[in-house]
Design goal:
Length: about 350
C-alpha cells in the first residue's frame, strides 16, 4: 500500500522563484485569489464606460476578478515579470522631440512577448511537475480575462501606480507580466505597498489627459487605446495631442521617478527591429501592405493592422513640420481605398494648408 507524499510547499515556492529567474524572468511571486476590492474598482470603471470599444473587458463577467471561476480549482497564482527595455535604443525623449520620426512604445520594438513568455511559463510548469508530479495549472499572458496587475501586486511584484501601471521599487515599470494559475496550496507572498505619495507627474504629462484622476484611466482618451485598440476614426480633438506617437505611448512611464531604477532587458528578442526606435514617418508611411506584414511578423505592432498603421502615421504627419516631403507623402495616400485612411490624410493635409 503506497502513501502519497505531500510536498514541502514552502521549499517548492522557493524553488519556483529560483527556476523562474533561471528561465529569464526577473522575478516571481505567489498570491491568493481574493480580489474583492479590485473587482469593485473594475466594475466602476466599466460602468463609467472608460473601456471604450474594448467590449471584451465586460464580456467575461466576474471571471476576470475571480481566478477560480476562470480556472476551477485555482488556489494560488504565480505571477512573473520580465524586463523589456532594450539597451542601446534611441532615447525615448529624443524620438518624441523629433516630430519627423515615429514614436513606438518601447515594449513593441522587438518580438511580441506573448508567445515568448507563455513558452517560459510552460517550462516553469514542467519544472514543477518534474519535482512533484502532475498538478493543475494554466498559463496566461494577456490571453484571458485576468487582473494581472492586481495579482502581481498581491504577489509582491509592485504596486499599481496612479497611471494604473505596475511599479516595482527596484525596477521601475518597464516589464511584462504573466501568470500561472495553479491548484497548489503554496504559501503566499506579502502584497506590495504603494509608494507614489503626492506625486502626480504621470497625470500632468499625459498628452490627452487620459488619466482623469489617481488610479482612474479613461481608455477612450489613452493614446495606446487610440493607436491600437480603436478600429475606427480617432476623435479629431485628440489627434493634435498625439504628436508623433504612432503605436502606444510611454509618457506616463518616462516621467515616473521610479523608472530611474528601470532595468535593461537581457532578452535579445526584444531588441528593436527595422530601426523602429526612431524611424522617419515618411519612410514608414511608404510601406506597402505586403511590406508591413513582412516587417511586423512576430511583433505586437501587427495588432493595429495596416489600415490602423496608415491612420496613425497620417495623424503624426499632420503634426509634423510642414515640408514638401511630408505633403507629397500624404498626397500619395489621399485616394487610398480605405475611408478611414482617406479621412485622416485629409485632416493632415488641411493642417499643412493652414501653415503660412
Amino acid at each position: 500500500m503506497s502513501t502519497q507524499v505531500i510536498p514541502d510547499y514552502t521549499a517548492l515556492a522557493r524553488d519556483i522563484k529560483h527556476w523562474a529567474r533561471e528561465l529569464g524572468f526577473a522575478e516571481a511571486g505567489i498570491s491568493g485569489v481574493t480580489l474583492e476590492q479590485d473587482e469593485q474598482h473594475l466594475n466602476r470603471w466599466l460602468e463609467d464606460g472608460y473601456h471604450g470599444e474594448m467590449d471584451y473587458m465586460a464580456r467575461h463577467g466576474s471571471k476576470r476578478s475571480r481566478p477560480d471561476e476562470l480556472e476551477p480549482g485555482t488556489q494560488r497564482v504565480i505571477s512573473v515579470r520580465m524586463d523589456y527595455l532594450p539597451p542601446g535604443t534611441q532615447h525615448a525623449w529624443d524620438v518624441l522631440q523629433d516630430a519627423e520620426a515615429g514614436y513606438v512604445a518601447r515594449y513593441a520594438l522587438g518580438r511580441d512577448y506573448h508567445k515568448l513568455m507563455r513558452n517560459r511559463l510552460q517550462k516553469l510548469a514542467d519544472r514543477i511537475r518534474g519535482a512533484i508530479g502532475d498538478f493543475g495549472y494554466r498559463a496566461y499572458v494577456d490571453s484571458a480575462p485576468v487582473l494581472e496587475k492586481a495579482l502581481a501586486r498581491n504577489a509582491g511584484l509592485g504596486w499599481i501606480g496612479k497611471h494604473t501601471v505596475l511599479i516595482n521599487r527596484l525596477a521601475g515599470s518597464y516589464f511584462f507580466l504573466g501568470e500561472l494559475y495553479t491548484n497548489l496550496p503554496l504559501p503566499v507572498d506579502e502584497a506590495a505597498t504603494a509608494h507614489c505619495g503626492s506625486c502626480r507627474k504621470c497625470i500632468d504629462i499625459c498628452p490627452t489627459q487620459a488619466i482623469v484622476g489617481p488610479y482612474r484611466l479613461d481608455a477612450r482618451r489613452c493614446i495606446s487605446y487610440l493607436t491600437i485598440e480603436l478600429k475606427g476614426s480617432i476623435p479629431e480633438e485628440l489627434r493634435a495631442p498625439m504628436g508623433n506617437r504612432i503605436f502606444g505611448c510611454d509618457d506616463c512611464q518616462l516621467i515616473c521617478p521610479w523608472n530611474k531604477f528601470a532595468q535593461d532587458t537581457s532578452e535579445p528578442d526584444f531588441a528593436p527591429r527595422h530601426s523602429l526606435d526612431g524611424a522617419k514617418l515618411v519612410e514608414l508611411f511608404d510601406w506597402s501592405e505586403e511590406e508591413f506584414l513582412r516587417r511586423t511578423e512576430g511583433m505586437a505592432i501587427r495588432r493595429t493592422g495596416y489600415e490602423g498603421w496608415l491612420r496613425n502615421i497620417a495623424v503624426a504627419l499632420g503634426n509634423a513640420p510642414s515640408s514638401e516631403g511630408v505633403r507629397a507623402a500624404l498626397l500619395k495616400r489621399a485616394e487610398h481605398s480605405s475611408a478611414i485612411v482617406r479621412e485622416h490624410v485629409a485632416w493632415a493635409l488641411e493642417r499643412h494648408r493652414q501653415v503660412p
